[in-house]
Structures are given as structure tokens and as C-alpha cells.
Amino acid sequence: MSEIQELMTELKGLPKVFDDKLAAGIKPIKEEQDRVNKRADDLLSRLTEMQRYLQQQISREGKVRVETGRYAGMDLLDLKIMESLFEKRRTSSGHGHPVLGEIIEARKSLVQNMSETTLLQWEEGALDRRLLYLPGAYRQSSSAMAFKEAMKGWTRHLVLQRKALDSTTAAAGDELVPTFEAAELWMDVNLDTLVLPLFPQQTMPTNPFDIPRQFGDTNWYPIDENVQVTTTDPTTGKTTLTAYGLKTGVPFSDELEEDAIVALVPEIRSSLARNAAQVIDDVLLNADTTTTDNINLLSTTISRTYAGQAHQVLGFDGLRHLANVDNTAQERNQNAGADIAMLYATLGLLRKYGVARRRGEVVWLCDPRTTAAVMGSVSLASQASFGDRATLSAGELREVIGIPWIRTDQMRVSSAGGRVSSTTTLNTTGNVLLVNTSQWRVGFRRQITMETDREAGRGQTTMYVSFRIAFAERSGTRSSATHTAHIRNITGV
Prior knowledge:
A six-stranded mixed beta sheet has the order 7-16-13-8-12-11, sandwiched between helices. It has a four-stranded mixed beta sheet with strand order 1-14-15-4, with helices on one face. Strands 2-3 form a two-stranded antiparallel sheet. It has three domains: 2-56; 76-192, no CATH class; 238-490, no CATH class. It starts with a helix and ends with a strand. 35% of the residues are buried. The chain has helices at 2-13, 15-23, 30-56, 76-93, 98-112, 116-132, 142-168, 176-192, 258-286, 319-326, 340-349, 368-376, 378-381, and strands at 201-203, 209-212, 238-241, 244-253, 292-294, 297-301, 331-336, 362-366, 392-393, 396-397, 399-400, 403-407, 430-436, 440-455, 460-473, 484-490. The chain has 493 residues and is α+β, with helices and mostly antiparallel strands. α1 (2-13) packs antiparallel against α3 (30-56) and α6 runs antiparallel to α7 (142-168).
């Protein structure tokens, strides 16, 4: 507020330049008038920018929110969902709802006051939120850098749209809204995922979509003058990404009062985004196309309608499946408590893939209970005195053997064979995955979509969230792939 007061004081003081001269009988020259007028215009522009910033209400987490009134705290996506809900009620009932106009005006106000500075602050806030939950070693990794670049891509697109709208004043900024809403929803999900951001992500223009595999090694020879060098035909191939869709929905009854919906929409939006993030991480880790004796539920059949776990049989196999089923040579049976030796032995299973070309390219993935057991290991706890890069720091496991440690509740304790049993009393042992993330690709044929559907016959509106995802490893032969390893049967968790 002090900066605004300073601007106002200077603006009020500008006429005194002329008052003093006129009192002395001196007529101001044109150059002086132009200079003062230009300064006044500059001050007014700065004041307008400051007022926009205050009206915009950039919250601490970087979200663009409504500042006051009935919709205080809502962002553009919340308002869009609200508008969709009441618009569909208007369509089915044949008459408008008084709140609909208020919602539309609130959205227009946010967009009209959106500036380039606002969008950059939104980007910074999103990055701060993402890095807050990551181990220190991962923050400078290639995956973290890719996340930053993705964020900058969103922002650049939004800034260009904003500039175009400023020059054309088209539709009061409505063209900006769909892009910003999509970015907000995608950010909601990405900020809650722990596994997804570790892997390179590929937009899929078609389904299926082919990506080239890495070239094989070439042979190198000394150079002799005027002698043709011997060339090597590298091994080539392709990996096919095939996307599969997942969808969920939450119904609202017509009996919900207007004020209840206003309070409920942000909560449901947040819950659905968080749940989408959990499901994405779950399928990347645990997907298994086998319906009977699935690695996630032995002695039971998981069908495509099996509540709570149907998403795990969507169409591809995940990380755990590779070492536990496809190439069991990549799996270590610990059959004892956690210790540093099991981690070194597992790192050896990765061979050349155990060396990270970029920081954070190789990661540990572990469930919370096993992480606690690893932290309690005497051999690991003794490393806690090595400064800021220590294995244990303020009670948090940040990295082990120089490799980032990611704790996720989508990794689960299991039976001794590394598979989750339908008999819960058998699920008492821990698991750890070691993955070279450069050897996997995540594809999205459709990113996160949120929509509402009016069902007049039932007297309800349903909010849906869906996406289409693909996941594949890049070697093309899972039965011999050595870029992923698994430790199972860790006792004492």
C-alpha cells in the first residue's frame, strides 16, 4: 500500500509545478507541459497496474482468485464449473437462475484484470508448490527441469493470448479462459503426483503413437589419413504408446441449495484432482493387465467394474510388473530387514542404467512403511552426520547412495512374493523399486478433462473427470530389460 501512496502523492504534486510558475507570472513552455503530462500518464498506468494486482488477489500458492464477495477464494476453473452447473439447470428448467449472471461477471472481472505479471506469478507459485514436496536432490534433476519448462510453456502461451486480447479486446478475454482453466486443472493434478513428474511425458497426436527407441551403441575407430572410417549400423526400432481412458464422476442432486453448491464445488474439484493424481501414480506403478491373480490382488479376479481397483487393469503393465513378472532376474528377495547392502545389490542389477546421465534420472520409489524401516536401519542412520547432503535430514529420507528417494502411498506393502494378497494379514513385507526414468515414456492422448452433465430425469448434475494415458518402456523387450529393479520381502515393516 505504501507504493500506491507514494504514486498518489507524486501525482497530486505535479500541478504545483505550474502553480508556482503561474504565481510568479511565468507561462509554462510546451515542453514542460508535455513532460508533466507524460509523467502523469506514467503514474496513472502504474496505479492501474497496482490496482489490478490487488484486485487479482494472487494467493500464497500462486493461484488467481476472486478477492471478495460470494465467490471469494474461487479461481477461474471453480467459476467455470459453477457456470456450467447453473447453465445446465437453466437449460433443463427453461428459465435462468439469478446466480448465473453473477458467476459470469466474476469470471469476466478476473480475466479483464489478468496481466502478464499475474501470469508469471502464477507460474512461480506453481513451481514453488511443486518443489516444496520434492527431495532436495530431485529439484535440479532433468525431470524437475522438464516440469519447469512445461510450466513456462503454459505461461508463454497464456501471455501471448493475453497480449493479443489487449490489442483486440476480443470478447472481454473469453478466449483466454479455456487455456487458463485447462492449465489450472493440469497443475492441480501434477502438483499432487509424485511418480508422474519423474518420467518424460509425450503428447500423443494419434492413438496409438510410435516413438523411436534409443540407438544402440556404435563402434569407434582411430582415424587414419585418407582412409574411410568404418561405420556402424545402429540398432533401431520403435516403441508404441497406446492410450487408455479412465473416468470418474460425482453427482449433485437438485435439492442442494445454491449456497451449498458454492461451498461444495471447490472441495469436490480439489478432491477429484487429488484423486486423479493418485490414480495416475497408481497405474504407473501397479498396472497389470492380468485380471486373475493380478499383482495387486492375488486369489481374486479384478474386472473392469471392480470398485477401487478396476483402473489397474486399464490396458498396460506398470513398473512393478517388469521386475516381478516380466524379468524376475531384476528382483531381489531380501527376506530380512532393511539394510544398506540390499540397496547396493539392487543398484548393481541396473548395470549401466544405474548411472544417471542427469541428476535425478535414477530414483528409488518406496512405500511409507518401508521408508520408515529404511530410516531406522543402523547402517543408514549412521550416515546422518554428513551435512546438508546427508541421507537423513531433519527426519526426512532425501537420497540414498546419491539417488533421490521418493516416498509414495501408491507403493504398498505386500506378501513375501512382492504381490498384494487378498488376505490382508499376509501383506506384511515392504517393497522398493529402483528405476532409470529415461527408459520409460508417459503419453497423454487427452490430458485431464473436467465436465458436467445434466440428468434431468434423475434431478441431478454429475461432475466428471477423465484422461487418456499411455505408458511404455523403451527397450521394447520387457523380458530382458535391466533399467528397472525391485526389492521384495523386506521384513519388519
